[in-house]
Write a structure and sequence with these properties.
The structure is a homodimer. Chain A is an alpha+beta fold. Chain A folds into two domains: about 120 residues, Jelly Rolls; about 90 residues, Arc Repressor Mutant, subunit A. Chain A is about 40% helix and about 20% strand. Chain A contains seven helices and eleven strands. The longest helix of chain A has 27 residues. Chain B binds a DNA duplex through α6.
Chain lengths: ~230, ~230
DNA sequence: CGCATACTTGACGTCATTCAAACCGTGTGG
DNA sequence: CCACACGGTTTGAATGACGTCAAGTATGCG
C-alpha cells in the first residue's frame, strides 16, 4: 500500500516533517505502510536487511533475548518514533508490536540514500537518535540502583506522562501498554515482584488498579517521591 | 590553545575525519584543546552551555547522580568519542575524566552551525550517536537480569576487548580504568560485591588480579561462559 | 611518619527471587 | 448453559544473593 502523507497522523512530528513537499513525495513512493497486530514482529535480532520505519500509531517494544530465553525490553517506541539501526549490517534487537500498530516502512537503503540526499533528514534523525539515547540512559539509571518499588513508581510516572497529550502534565487514568511480565522484563524484576509492588503502591494510596491493565493516579506527588527523582 | 589537527591522534577516526581540509580548518579555529586530570569535570548535569568535545586520549565517564548522592555510570567514552547533548537546552549528566585526558572542545553553537553547514558532519554524528545508543543498550541488557558474577565477567570481557588494538581479539593483560566503586556504580553493585566476585572469578581460574588495577586473563572462554552471552 | 584513599574480608540482615498454589476473565466445545 | 482449559495475575512461604555494617589491610602522598 502506498503512503498517504496527507492523512498521516504524525506528519508534523515524525522525522519526515522536515522534508520539503517534493522530497517527501519522493520518500513516499519508496515507503509502504504496514499494520502489525499485538505480538507481531517487525524484525528480529540478526536480520540482515531489517526495515526502517516511522511509527504512526500504536506502540512497539525493542528487546533483546539472552541465551536462556529471557527477554529484556530495552526501549518502547511511541508514535512518530523512528525504528532502525542505520549503520549496522544486521539488527541487534527484536522489534515487536505491543498493541495494533501502523507503521510507515522503508528499505534501509532508501533511508541511507535519503540521509545522503537530504541533509535535513540526517539532522532530524540525529535529533531523534539523541533523544533515544537519553531515554535509554534514563532507563539505565532507573534499573541500576533503585529498589523495585522505586523502579515501578518511576515507570508508572513515565506512562502517566506519556498517556497525557500535554507533555508537562500527567494523565489521571491510563492503560498499561505492557503485561506484568513485560514490565518485569523492562525493569529487571519478576512477574511476582511487579504484582506485589503494584499492590503495595495501591495500599499506600499512590495509585489504584482498575481491572488488569488500568491505573488511576491517586497521589502523583507520592508516586514521584517514591520513585526517588 | 589552538587546534593542531595535523598531529591529532584520532584524525582518522573522529567525527571531523569526514570534513574536507578547508572545512576542518574552519572548525579548528573555533575549537580549543583542553586537558583534564583524573577526577576533573568537563561539565555537570544542569549546565546550560555545556561544551561539546571529541576525546583525543584518555577516558571519560558519563554519570548521573540521584537525590541521595549515589552515582550511576551510564557510559564510558574512549578516544575519538564525541561528547555533547546536541539538542538539549542543558546537560542531563556529568562528564568526568577517569584518567588524564586530552579533548578538543567546541561551543555547542559551533557544533550546531557545523551540522547545518556540513552535511557530512551531521551524518558522522548520527553514526556515532547510533553507536552510543547501541553501547548504552548493551549495558542496559547487562544490568537488567544478569547476576553480579555475570555482569562483572561481561565487563571484564569488554575491557579486555577495548584494551586490545585489534578489535576482534582480547588483551591478555590490562589495567582497569575504573576503581571498584566505579565498577559498582556502573553495574549496579556495591564495592564489596565487586571485590568479592573478583576474588571468586580469580578462584575459579578465569582471571588473575595483578596489583590493584591490573587484570590478567587466565581463561577467556570461561569468562565468556560466565558472562552468559 | 602519619594520614587518606582504595581495597579486602567477615558476620549479619534484607529484599527480591523462586517455587507452589489459587484466582480471574475469556474463549471453546460439549 | 455449563465444563474446562488457558493466559495473565495474585498471593504465600522459604530460600538465597546481594547489601549493610564493621574491621582490618595495602598503597600512596604530603
Amino acid at each position: 500500500m502506498n503512503l498517504a502523507c496527507a492523512t498521516c497522523p504524525v506528519k508534523e512530528s515524525a522525522a519526515c516533517a522536515v522534508l520539503t513537499p517534493e522530497e517527501r513525495e519522493a520518500m513516499a513512493t519508496a515507503g509502504r505502510t504496514r499494520v502489525l497486530k499485538r505480538g507481531e514482529m517487525l524484525f528480529a535480532a540478526g536480520d540482515e536487511d531489517a526495515a526502517c520505519a516511522t511509527l504512526l500509531s500504536g506502540a512497539l517494544k525493542v528487546s533483546a533475548v539472552d541465551i536462556d530465553g529471557n527477554e529484556q525490553i530495552l526501549a518502547l517506541v511511541h508514535p512518530a518514533g523512528f525504528i532502525g539501526e542505520l549503520f549496522a549490517p544486521f539488527a541487534h534487537h527484536d522489534v515487536v508490536a505491543l498493541t495494533e500498530s501502523r507503521l510507515c516502512t522503508f528499505a534501509k537503503a532508501d533511508i541511507e540514500r535519503a540521509i545522503e540526499d537530504y541533509p535535513a533528514m540526517a539532522r532530524a534523525l540525529l535529533r531523534r537518535s539523541q533523544a533515544d539515547l537519553l531515554a535509554t540512559r534514563n532507563l539505565l539509571e532507573l534499573t541500576g540502583h533503585a529498589s523495585a518499588e522505586a523502579r515501578l513508581a518511576a515507570l508508572l510516572h513515565d506512562f502517566a506522562a506519556a498517556a497525557s497529550d500535554s507533555s508537562c502534565h500527567l494523565a489521571q487514568h491510563f492503560e498499561l501498554p505492557l503485561t506484568r511480565g513485560e514490565i518485569g522484563n523492562m525493569l529487571g524484576l519478576t512477574i511476582e515482584t511487579v504484582s506485589r509492588k503494584l499492590g503495595e503502591l495501591e495500599d499506600m494510596g499512590a495509585i489504584k488498579r482498575e481491572g488488569k491493565r488500568g491505573i488511576a493516579l491517586r497521589n502523583p506527588e507520592l508516586l514521584h517521591e517514591i520513585s526517588g527523582r
